[in-house]
Write a structure and sequence with these properties.
- The chain starts with a strand and ends with a strand.
- The radius of gyration is 16 Å and the shape is globular.
- It is of the alpha/beta class.
- It contains six helices and seven strands; from the N terminus they run E-H-E-H-H-E-H-H-E-H-E-E-E.
- Bound molecules: zinc ion.
- Zinc ion (ZN) binds next to loops.
Length: about 160
């Protein structure tokens, strides 16, 4: 059997998953865009992660399922693309693990029978990376990986991976 395949959401990138371990990693262009705005090294991403556009069939299947489960309003376009890619990968790879901490994403994945990787990003084969996010303008540091602009002075934030 070959290496396990993983479909990664943006939080998986912030946790450092694609930078270590030996799985085959996949994501969508929408996730990549999200990750890029947070200054995560894009050359690293391209060397480790295959970026794929999900099929329109899978996107509509995800939308109709999410409508039934009541999760559609909680899903972003990025979330929908991720789930649709998971569906595609189940066909093309014969199996995949979806990595997402988002409740609505996990809920819809379960209904679609897309296998979910364990929520704990610290466990398993990966060592967790802690991102140090800091402002060059005022020197303040942050821990919230979703922040891109310093709330204090408005400067674009810089992040550094510190493993351990
Ligand atoms: Zn600042």
């Amino acid at each position: 059997m070959s290496e396990p395949a993983y479909v990664l959401d943006s939080t998986a990138f912030y946790a450092g998953i694609p930078y270590q371990g030996s799985g085959r990693y996949y994501t969508t262009y929408l996730v990549l865009e999200e990750v890029k705005t947070h200054n995560v090294g894009s050359s690293l991403i391209h060397s480790r992660v295959q970026v794929t556009e999900p099929s329109p069939e899978s996107i509509s299947r995800v939308k109709s399922t999410a409508t039934k489960t009541g999760d559609l309003s909680a899903l972003s376009q990025t979330d929908i693309s991720l789930l649709a890619l998971g569906l595609d990968m189940m066909k093309t790879e014969g199996g995949v693990n979806l990595v997402s901490d988002d409740f609505a994403v996990r809920n819809v994945a379960e209904v679609l029978s897309i296998p979910l990787a364990p929520t704990s990003l610290k466990g398993g084969e990966w060592k967790n990376i802690t991102w140090k996010i800091y402002c060059r303008g005022c020197g303040k540091t942050y821990t919230n990986p979703k922040l891109t602009i310093c709330p204090v002075c408005g400067t674009q934030l810089v992040r550094k991976a510190s493993s351990g």
